[in-house]
Predict the structure.
Amino acid sequence: MPELPEIVCRAREMNEELAGRRIRAVAVKQPKCLNVPVAEFARGLSGARVRGVTNRGKWLFVDTSSGHLLLNLGMGGEILLVPSDDLPEVWRVRLDLDRKQSLSVNFWWFGYAHYIAAGRLDEHSMPAALGPNVLDVSLAEFRRLLRGRRGAVKPFLLDQSNLAGIGNAYIHDILFRARLHPLEPLTSLSPKAVRRLHGAIAKELRRSIAKGGAFYEVDLHGHPGGFRETDLLVGYREGKPCPACGTPVVKIKTGSTASFLCPRCQPLSG
Ligand SMILES: [Zn+2]
């Protein structure tokens, strides 16, 4: 499942490859993933010129001369830039571009391709429900977001309405680097611990971004990312030695999710 590092990498590549290019035609094989009728979607984007591509949380924002295309890969999928006469076998939405290339979008299960007319982005309900991009949040803003909040640190970080971008793949190593137990109550975090956590989020997500994201997702040309299982610190490494102290990593149940942690480096203090 793509998380923030993978989506940041896709947005960068798409921006580099697509900015300035013309969308000649649009085709849709999975109308259910759209927010508008197929005809409106196609009319909105056909002939538009791509201005740039960014991301907010796991949403890709393709800004064009006649509105916005918002993509969300859901549980996973591929966005591939291919010759128009050599399309992949499976695709859900396709943008035919200039230079005889197409952008083929496939969702493994279900994703979203939404069209928003120019000037109406604020009305779109899903991005509006997202908190700020986690990598754009300063330490001061992070402290403000945490102020007066109850509950444990892990569910707070995973709730996309607080902060957009942290998912299950990276949360374990973020908490390990911050030396925090997933169930540590927010009210017991010291100012020092908050600073450590803020730094750990950026460090862990950027470590993957620098490698092109996780190996199980592919770039626009079908090449897998360079962040591999062996790059993980404690995540999904039950029984393996903690990289800091050698204590075996444990897997515990935390609410409805599983957590991987070092019991010695990440004691529960609250
Ligand atoms: Zn340890």
